[in-house]
Amino acid sequence: MAIGESGAGAVDCELEELVLRVNDHPEVRLKLLTEVSRALEDCSRLMPAERATLAEKVERWRYQLLNHNAGHLSDDQSELTQRLDLLMNQLSGSEPRPPRSLLSILATTRSQPLSAEIEACLDPRRPLQAVEAAARVVTDRHFAAGDGSASRPMLLYAPLYVSNHCINHCLYCGFRYPNPMDREQLDVAQAIAEADVLGRRGFRHLLVVAGEYPRLITVDYLARVVSALTGQGFAVAIEVAPQSTLGYSQLRAAGAVGVTLYQETYDPERYSIYHPKGTKAWYDWRLEGPERAAEAGIRRIGLGILLGLGDPREELGALIAHGRYLLERFPDLKLSFSLPRIHDAPDSFSAPHHVDDETFIRLCCALRLAIPCANLVLSTREPAHLRNRLARTCITQMSAGSSTSPGGYQKHDRDGASREQFPVVDQRSPEEVVRHLTEDGFRVVWNLSELQAR
Ligand code: SF4
Q1: Which residue, of 150, 250, 263, 300, is most buried by count of CB atoms within 10 Å of its CB?
Q2: How confident is the model at residue 412, as a pLDDT?
Q3: Which of 164, 172, 179, 280 to mutate to test the pocket of ligand 1 (most atoms within 8 A of CB)?
């Protein structure tokens, strides 16, 4: 049967002609479309898993188009990416939706000024204390304790690094492929042993972190780790390589409740400079990762930029646009943001857009005002005094006592620093952080279920 005979609206002669115009060697693509056409024509022809696999092939085709053309698509290519996106969605059996449009939204955002409210936060002539006070009011209003008490909850979580293998060359990262270091990947038992240490310290919410190494850090491996940790009573989010929609579905089925995926920089040209080789060089694949995770049903999504890489005002504008875009498409999403700053980097990498403490505080406050309902997350990259100050102002989730190397919680070893992704600056133990937060009037929360953000 030729494409178009199926009567299925999504696969028609027009699409076939589009493929012929875009591809020099269209045979494989046309064959795939024939399979898709048959699957859509007769829903009983394929098992759900087979349809999902087919949807994944269509999804990968779309990203090949996007990535090979590095954002410079002809009209035909652009139309084909939209048609493939909808076809993938139709195959997966999801509700009909408009095509993904984050790329065009970001392009528009780049040409627009920041809102007056954000400008006011970033304006160095406005006293910093006034900016912080405004952010604090908004934070307290949206994250007040649901029980009517005066204390605002602060969720504590811990990163659990399961692998420092990575094929990428991100210029700013200690795990980058050319960096000589001992590489290690925890097996499931070792991951549980790490989690046991964290559990004894009080943590119930873990962020499983891994580099990108497709041969080793597979969806199956991650699903086994997530499933095992979930089975131990932890709520588990993941910060790993971007996955396909099917991959995220598998991780959700394994128990993952959240996905953190930072774009680092939203500027495609800067992005290609900082990510010269490896899978992370695929800008579009990463950019739409959070949306794929949301489509797979994961409801806690974390976005972020790595401060230092790009112009912080531009990056903040793009980050806000990304967050709003996701909230519009997935109104029940629990969105969080983080603004990690580059302090130390390998091979003397120096961040071209240094962000000082005052600007950092202003950026965090601006983010709070821009999207009041979003959680703001702060890691141990920042010093204790700054973390304390930002906690009072706008932060709702913090890590504490972190290790950024695989196995680091058990080993307390002397060579840990040589295997870590970035240096931990706030060296306080979880107990010390808890004590300080409590003295400062916070109610420390270890379980997601205890949170009642409004
Ligand atoms: S930032 Fe992530 S992807 Fe890049 S080198 Fe580090 S671990 Fe690998």
Answers
A1: 263
A2: 64
A3: 280
